[in-house]
Amino acid sequence: MSVIEVSELRKSYGGRTVVDGVSFTVDEGEIFGILGPNGAGKTTTVECVEGLRVPDAGRVRVTGLDPIADHEQVARVLGAQLQQSELQPKLTVREALELYACFYPNPADWRPLAERLGLTAKLGTRFGKLSGGQRQRLFIALALIGNPRAVVLDELTTGLDPRARRDTWELIEDVRESGVTVLLVTHFMEEAQRLCDRIAVIDKGRVAALDTPAGLIRRSAGATVISFTPSAPLDDHDLTSLPAIASIERKDGRITLSGTDETVNAVITLLARHRVTAHQLRVTDATLDDAFLDLTKEAAA
Amino acid sequence: MNTAVLRTEFRLFRREPGAVFWIFLFPTLLLVILGSIPSFREADESLGGLRPVDAYVPIAVLIALIMSGVQSLPQVLTGHRERGILRRMRLTPVRPSALLSAQMAVQGTVALASALLALAVGRLAFDVTLPEQPAGYLLALLLATASALALGSVVSALSRTTKIAGAIGSAVFFPMMFCAGVWLPVQAMPHTLARVVQLTPFGAAARALGEAAAGHWPGWGHLGVLAVWTLLLTGAASRWFRWE
Question: What Rg, from alpha-carbon coordinates, does chain B have?
Fold first, then answer.
């Protein structure tokens, strides 16, 4: 069953189209990623889901409700963390949790929530004195305090150090384990690859691709990367005529090719035919990073 | 109005020593300083036989309203918007207007408490008689509070940042203090000047409070000026105010 449904969503500001026909559905219990370069329209899309912006065209439903017309009901089932927001600087963590708990008809107990987010030692600290990571954790707590069915997390780990980022990832997995559907906006490939069940790659206001992380990598042109240092120079023509070749790079005598499994076999045959030894031969799967660059490059062309 | 928001905003107000001082303590402190000058305790012809310290009690009350409405309220509202606090509240089932109304209730209540303090200190320390027409005094005070809060909301609606709110607040602050009669009580102003000043919210409030203090029902003209200002300013604020 889908918790969030977006179809043919369009939004422009002052004649500039920011979201241009985006459609996707988020199923109950999944972590759905929205991935894209800066300015691709990711935040505007989720702001329409949250009911902060009115779409120019298209349909948005959260558990079957319209985020604009049924704002109050949607706010009860959808928790959210915004990319940039603050609280009153002199409000303590405990007061913020108590206050936000009052806003919901059936709130979560904030004590275990604070415990799970590692905020227990900071309950008496004012918002203005919290570090970036602590603020983020408090905002996650506030997003979850109303016992929502789904949460929107927008650029959650931006500005966090690697340790805090990994802790946050574990936390998001915990959130999903507890049955909450997660819509995650990010521009970190590693984050999307590790967490998301499915990803919509958004570029220039459109969905460039929608698939599982593995599916996105597989469908991109250079899913497999082969690199080696040949014992004798290889002819450019031989390389470009390899089957399913996607890219060729030469650097300091080392050759890096991307393509498919077919390309790998053909490279080995080619090397054997010319009696060339491949030093430090490495064959690796491309990462989501490569797939993403490939997808957004296609959209640009 | 959401009581949890109201309680929180009141608690946060108490954590701002600057606001507490300027709104709650400063007006009475000024009254005490002026009342300590011997000549301020002698009857004055130009004030219709009142002592200057008598005339300064309603002025102290108005200073409290100006401090809360024009100085404090726009800073808080603009700050809440600038920091995205209003925006964050839009994601909850409680509307951000709850935060605005709570903030107005807090500022208005503290200003009224400050007015009571000024009246009490005036009575106890300087023998200033309490308003002889209490109902009229209360009505004038409530209308004046409403117009001060409405003026503050307009300042906040017109200010994109707290810096701008501070600048506009200060620009409005001194003329309002003048109209309230801080430098020269309205009764003592030259006739033409007084007529103009009485058309401003705090000039009208000063006259209405003065009349009620002396035992008359405040002039409907002055109350009318206050009511019209309140309506106009509230209309302007709700038209121009932005949530983000």
Answer: 18
